[in-house]
Known about the structure:
Elements: H1 2-14, H2 22-25, H3 35-38, E1 42-50, E2 53-68, E3 71-77, E4 86-93, H4 95-99, H5 103-106, E5 110-111, H6 113-118, H7 128-138, E6 142-147, E7 163-166, H8 176-186, H9 189-195, H10 209-220, H11 227-234, H12 254-258
Antiparallel strand pairs: 1-2, 1-7, 2-3, 3-4, 4-6, 5-6, 6-7
Amino acid sequence: MKRLSLLITSLFIAASAPGQTSENTKSAGSGASYPPIGDIHAHVCGIHFYNGDISRQIIAEHYCAHRSDEVLQCVIYDSSKPGARLIGIEYIVSAKIFESLPAEEKKLWHSHNYEVKSGVLTAPGMPDTAEKDLMKVLIGTYGKTWHTWQVDRDAKLPMGIPQLMMAFTADGQAQAKILSERDSLYGSSATKKTARVNISDGQSRPRCRRRAERLRRAARSENGARTGEIIAELRSTLFGKISGGRTESGGASRRGFYRHNPPAFT
């Protein structure tokens, strides 16, 4: 487990946006250290909507770190620029973990399948090939997202209780205005959708220490030059097998899912 965690860390470092340097990520105080923040190795951007109200849609900039080979944790901002507001958190788990959750708990989670396939989910600054390979890893995962700051209603302060957020599951759900705004930042989601058409939902999970060790050595060598290859092979070791017949909402029955989401999914 520790070896694979080291591998994932190497992967995220190698796949980081070229613009990220020690100069623009260093702490304000000389010699200061903030280990939890330093664990963040990935930046992905998506669009969330408020559970039960698909008309309220928010661009969400995720900065993620891994806790294990099957759990990621992300802090969410409303922008990728300095001074951005911290608006929420998201936990990401493998299919294996998701399937082990109680039925009621599953209703709080959403699948990343459509986000990946549609091109809505993107990894800013990452080369296209590496981004696609990373999406092959993320497609089999599930997220649980809470926004603590409703910036679309209260721009100055985080008011009210945390809000459960969901992700799109079908074409036509994302508002044209917010999709255009996101595309202007990170490129056409339609183009990404076309590029990802051959990404498969089904993945296997062979437990192979020898392969993990080989990938770890590859990540260390060549200073991350083989990022795309590493991510591609991680598809078979990182996240669990995706079974067929599951709803896009995250595996709970559609009837249970509709209790928490708008009729747009019917």
